[in-house]
Design brief:
CATH superfamily of the largest domain in chain A: P-loop containing nucleotide triphosphate hydrolases
Number of domains of chain B: 2
Distance between the termini of chain A: 45 Å
CATH class of the largest domain in chain B: Mainly Alpha
GO biological process, one term (chain B): transmembrane transport
Radius of gyration of chain A: 20 Å
Helix content of chain B: over 70%
Largest sheet of chain A: 6 strands, mixed
CATH architecture of the largest domain in chain A: 3-Layer(aba) Sandwich
Keywords (chain B): Cell membrane, Membrane, Transmembrane, Transmembrane helix, Transport
Shape of chain B: elongated
Structural class of chain A: alpha/beta
Distance between the termini of chain B: 16 Å
Largest interface: A-B, 26 and 22 residues
Radius of gyration of chain B: 25 Å
Pfam families (chain B): BPD_transp_1
Number of strands of chain A: 9
Membrane topology (chain B): Multi-pass membrane protein
Strand order of the largest sheet of chain A: 5-6-7-3-8-9
Oligomer: heterodimer
Bound molecules: adenosine-5'-triphosphate, magnesium ion
Strand content of chain A: 15-25%
Strand content of chain B: under 5%
Subcellular location (chain B): Cell membrane
Chain lengths: 280, 299
């Protein structure tokens, strides 16, 4: 790189105030999957900026590319066009810096490890000392309300508890970003509500930047600071809605008029995306 | 469910005992049928019209019967197992021990070879494509055809006794281990692999912390098959050498001299040894998986 004037150089490194706030910058992103029969255009013309501390939710019909977009951000999938930067660097470099805490729909705990050892896994891989990783695991299991279950094996825990363990595992190494792909999709309504409350509390305590995928409008309303509505074939962003809900929320907040209004807007957005699909 | 001693008798012992009783009964009938011709011929020389009861009794007491009666085998078994010093050449335990050591050495070598091959195949596409066809081809060659060659070739370089037999065992038993381990090492689901990638784990870390632990149940299933055919390999390895010790040697010398009773008791010893080996692996499996909370009962 040739020498840049100081301001640009600083911006390049992402240290300027306005830029520093942007954690994720997605520009003109597209991804076409080459499949044996026909190419699948999974994502098209995606532009999205996410600031530090935001809770951004992707919502849209099945197959609209929510998972794919998240996987591109996490460097688990490569785009065919456009660029993504994470903290000013490529997703690959961000992955090398271990910037991602990825939480899947299933807890993906290793059945041969007890809960404590499961949470210690990322630390083992990152070469953290035995004492320190044990301490971290205990602290974060406590944070997600699993104190006393350290020695249990995954099969001895309910689905909700397993997912809590996987959240503890993702948070415990203090990643920059929390990527959650339908983390509560497999849980019953009551457990899901409880997990939503927990997640709100954890998000307030840790101030993490969260990207969250869901099919539930309720969940999107309750959790998000911003909601990204997507449509399928090709996967595009239809609308981005800023939530005007107060920062302090609980399950009852969903019944407030502001929340009802927000849910309505999401529903309209999803409908618009859908009708576009039908016109084609 | 808990069951008392009476319940155990009815549920476990009774079916087994019934089957054994039926087999023994059929065996006696079969012994009469197969040995009839010889016995009646011999008795006909002594008297004109030998009684049927005498012929039947005769078929169960021949020295070299076509098919020995169960009590003859039991007598020979008990004589060569319990009434002979373990170190004596006539002791069946001694011969079983010789075969067992070749079996275990071959099994250990084969297991290591199988695991190493599987790790290579899973990690290197080149190996997957180049090695797999050869591995499969190696198993289509009848072991009876190559066993003598292995013995001769190794004998030429001065290797005799235990090692050539173990090599034949290894040749047979690395195969199920390799196949099972490839499947096991590939068993982690994409999510668990993605998780490792998101931690930026190295291939070695993925192997140690994910692939190998995930493959353990597959490994044990293959090891049970492998140990059984390792025993077959060791016995086959004892046949072409004219070995003086081992269950294979007992089978061979038995067939030279028409000692069918000896052959059958060696066969029973081989079956017993095979069972002990397979159940031992099963025991280790339960201990290992039990320690990880994956025991069959705990699932
Ligand atoms: N590896 C792949 N190869 C080919 N096509 C793929 C691949 N992964 C995803 N797709 C396709 O890309 C599109 C987007 O998939 P994606 O999983 O991102 O959708 P999604 O919005 O997460 O759906 P869901 O809500 O059901 O999870 C789908 O049409 C899917 O079939
Ligand atoms: Mg998805």
């Amino acid at each position: 790189m040739t020498s840049l004037p100081p301001r640009e150089a600083a911006a390049e490194r992402g240290t300027l105030m306005s830029v520093a706030d942007t954690v994720i910058d997605v520009r003109d992103l597209g991804l076409v999957f080459e499949t044996p029969d026909a190419p699948v255009e999974a994502l098209k013309d995606i532009n999205l900026q996410i600031r530090r501390g935001e809770f951004v939710t992707f919502i849209g019909p099945s197959g609209c590319g929510k998972t794919t977009l998240m996987r591109i951000i996490a460097d688990l999938e490569q785009p065919t066009s456009g660029t993504v930067t994470v903290n000013g660097v490529s997703p690959h470099e961000a992955r090398l810096q271990r910037a991602y805490g990825y939480i899947f729909q299933a807890a993906a705990l290793y059945p041969w490890r007890n809960i404590q050892k499961n949470v210690e896994l990322p630390h083992e891989i990152m070469g953290v000392s035995k004492a320190e990783r044990a301490e971290k695991a205990r602290r974060y299991l406590d944070l997600v309300g699993l104190k006393g279950f350290e020695k249990k094996f995954p099969f001895q825990l309910s689905g909700g508890m397993q997912q809590r363990a996987s959240i503890a595992r993702a948070l415990s190494f203090d990643p920059d970003l929390l990527l959650m792909d339908e983390p509560f999709g497999a849980l019953d309504e009551i457990t899901r509500d409880r997990m939503n409350e927990e997640l709100l509390r954890i998000w307030h305590e840790t101030k993490k930047t969260v990207i969250f995928v869901t099919h539930s409008i309720d969940e999107a309303v309750l959790l998000s600071t911003r909601i990204v509505i997507m449509s399928a074939r090709p996967g595009r962003i239809v609308e981005v809605i800023d939530s005007d809900l107060p920062a302090e929320r609980n399950l009852e907040t969903r019944e407030s008029p502001v929340a009802q209004q927000l849910a309505h807007r999401i529903r309209l957005g999803l409908k618009a995306g859908h009708s576009y699909d039908e016109v084609r | 469910m808990k069951q008392g001693p009476a319940g155990w008798m009815v549920n476990k012992l009774l079916p087994v005992a019934t089957v054994v009783a039926i087999i023994v009964l059929l065996w006696y009938v079969l012994a009469v049928a197969l040995n009839w011709a010889q016995v009646s011929e011999r008795l006909a020389k002594e008297s004109d019209n030998p009684p049927v009861s005498a012929i039947v009794a005769g078929t169960w007491e021949m020295e070299r019967p076509v098919l020995p009666a169960p009590h003859q085998i039991a007598a020979e078994f008990s004589k060569t197992v319990f009434e002979t010093r373990v170190t004596a050449k006539r002791s069946l335990v001694y011969h079983a021990g010789v075969t067992a050591s070749a079996t275990l050495l071959g099994f250990a070598l084969g297991a290591v070879l199988g695991i190493v091959l599987a790790i290579g195949i899973v990690h290197l596409k080149v190996l997957d494509r180049s090695l797999m066809p050869w591995i499969i081809a190696s198993q289509t060659v009848p072991i009876l055809a190559i066993a003598p060659m292995i013995i001769v070739v190794l004998g030429n370089v001065g290797l005799t006794g235990l090692v050539p037999k173990s090599i034949i065992s290894m040749y047979l038993c690395f195969f199920p281990v390799a196949i099972g381990m490839v499947k096991g090492l590939r068993s982690p689901d994409p999510m668990q692999l993605d998780l490792m990638r998101s931690y930026n784990a190295s291939a070695a870390q993925i192997l140690w912390k994910l692939r190998l632990p995930a493959s353990v149940p597959f490994l044990f299933a293959s090891l049970k098959v492998a140990v059984a055919i390792s025993l077959t390999g060791a016995i086959v390895g004892e046949l072409p050498t004219g070995a003086s010790a081992g269950l294979g040697a007992r089978l061979l010398s038995g067939s030279y001299y028409g000692q069918t009773v000896q052959i059958w008791s060696a066969l029973f010893m081989a079956a017993f040894l095979g069972m002990v080996l397979v159940y031992s692996i099963g025991g280790i499996e339960r201990l290992t998986l039990g320690a990880r909370g994956q025991a069959a009962g705990a699932r």
